[in-house]
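Backbone-to-sequence.
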């Protein structure tokens, strides 16, 4: 399999030199065929269909069409017209006549959809193994989890099969797999990217997310896809906050928990040191309120919102669900409407406390993934490692924050690590600018080291 990156700048230079997107499409299909991609893609477009898409492209003009000729993948809970959507549950399948709003916008910017990718079923999980299909293999170590729920989308980018991909993020699904595969994972402000045409997990919290090998590519995709959609009840008009981010809160020592993973702990210290080279000041903060919010997501009635998203299908075909997914959604029955309102009141109180802690800072920086579980770990305990992975991600959507996961210095065992920068709603561009400065300071370009250990 070719490990040559296919970043936007690389491909556009090729196009300027006279290359055709048909050549790129053929190359991408060859990469997918040689990558043992059974666990990555649930659907790959036919060569003839891709050729039709290429022929429909306008003349090359990257100013008018910033994503012109760029191959991308779509998580299979996001609609692509004429291609089945399953959310990794074959019995749930339907054939959308219209693409999701974000997909339409990306194609209008010149991007070429290559196929649909695997996920934790119904986007319920952070590990990437809760699928009835083959599990996507982690780009660095096939004995480790790929991260979820957007597992296939992240691995497709990490293995240089596509330039970028779409995932979704409700509790960290656009960040955890980025960290575990050494790529960028951009989780936008809630409502900045429309979710029309996306199978919901928690509709009030869901975000369409972006995976890319570089911050610049992720930012370009965000710019092309963002914008209000009046047909999406949860789409929002968000005013960008362009203030520079110079004072960064980081977890105090007592709030750092790597669950015995010393390699992750050391990598985090190196990541903070690299961040300090970016002209920012890092100050320890009390994370207690943020952790309390995180616990609400799975220990509170928001699991009932996940159950509502599946709806009648689970009532009629409970055994069509992955056993772990079904057991999680079954837990919704223990919550009442009173529990839900009490949890909303609790969240409001915690949000105010978190705002007070956040107030003196421009952004936060946290470890993205405090552990790096093996497949054997998940076979022995399907729930525990998943819960630990969400330690520093679960609170972000509930608190209406933006985030971007960026590769950092590698662990001592050669596995990827990184950090997540978190900002207030609307800070997406400012976060990306800081992430772009941090990326070189952290030790290099992700794409040059990604997939270096695949087998």
């Amino acid at each position: 399999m070719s490990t040559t990156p296919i970043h936007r700048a690389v491909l556009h230079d090729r196009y300027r030199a006279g290359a055709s997107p048909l050549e790129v499409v053929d190359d991408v299909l060859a990469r997918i065929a040689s990558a043992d991609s059974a666990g990555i893609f649930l659907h790959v477009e036919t060569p003839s269909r891709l050729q039709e898409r290429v022929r429909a492209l306008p003349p090359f003009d990257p100013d008018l069409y910033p994503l012109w000729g760029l191959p991308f993948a779509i998580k299979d809970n996001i609609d692509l017209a004429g291609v089945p959507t399953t959310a990794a549950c074959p019995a749930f399948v339907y054939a959308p006549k219209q693409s999701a709003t974000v997909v339409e916008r990306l194609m209008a910017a010149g991007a070429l959809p290559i196929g649909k990718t695997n996920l934790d079923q119904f986007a319920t999980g952070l590990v990437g193994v809760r699928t009835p299909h083959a599990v996507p293999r982690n780009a660095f170590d096939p004995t480790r989890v790929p991260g979820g729920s957007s597992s296939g989308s992240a691995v497709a980018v990490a293995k240089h099969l596509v330039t970028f991909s779409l995932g979704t993020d409700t509790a960290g699904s656009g960040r955890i797999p980025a960290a575990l595969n050494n790529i960028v994972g951009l989780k936008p402000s809630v409502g900045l990217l429309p979710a029309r045409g996306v199978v919901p997990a928690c509709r009030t919290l869901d975000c369409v997310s972006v995976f890319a090998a570089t911050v610049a590519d992720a930012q370009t995709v965000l710019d092309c896809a963002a914008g209000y959609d009046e047909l999406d009840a949860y789409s929002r008009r968000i005013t960008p906050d362009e203030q520079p981010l110079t004072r960064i809160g980081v977890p105090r020592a007592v709030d750092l928990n790597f669950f015995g993973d010393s390699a992750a702990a050391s990598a985090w210290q190196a990541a903070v040191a690299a961040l300090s080279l970016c002209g920012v000041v890092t100050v320890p903060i009390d994370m207690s309120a943020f952790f309390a919010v995180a616990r609400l997501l799975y220990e509170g009635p928001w699991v009932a919102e996940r159950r509502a998203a599946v709806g009648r299908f689970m009532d009629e075909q409970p055994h069509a669900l992955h056993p772990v997914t079904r057991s999680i959604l079954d837990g919704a029955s223990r919550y009442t409407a009173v529990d839900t309102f009490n949890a909303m009141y609790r969240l409001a109180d915690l949000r105010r406390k978190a705002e007070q802690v956040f107030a003196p800072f421009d952004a936060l920086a946290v470890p993205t993934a405090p552990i790096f579980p093996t497949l054997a770990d998940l076979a022995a305990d399907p729930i525990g490692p998943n819960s630990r992975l969400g330690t520093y991600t679960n609170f972000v959507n509930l608190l209406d924050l933006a985030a971007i996961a960026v590769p950092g210095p590698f662990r001592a065992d050669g596995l990827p690590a990184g950090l997540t920068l978190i900002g207030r709603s609307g800070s997406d561009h400012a976060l990306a600018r800081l992430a772009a400065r941090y990326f070189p300071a952290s030790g290099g370009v992700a794409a040059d080291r990604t997939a270096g250990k695949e087998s």
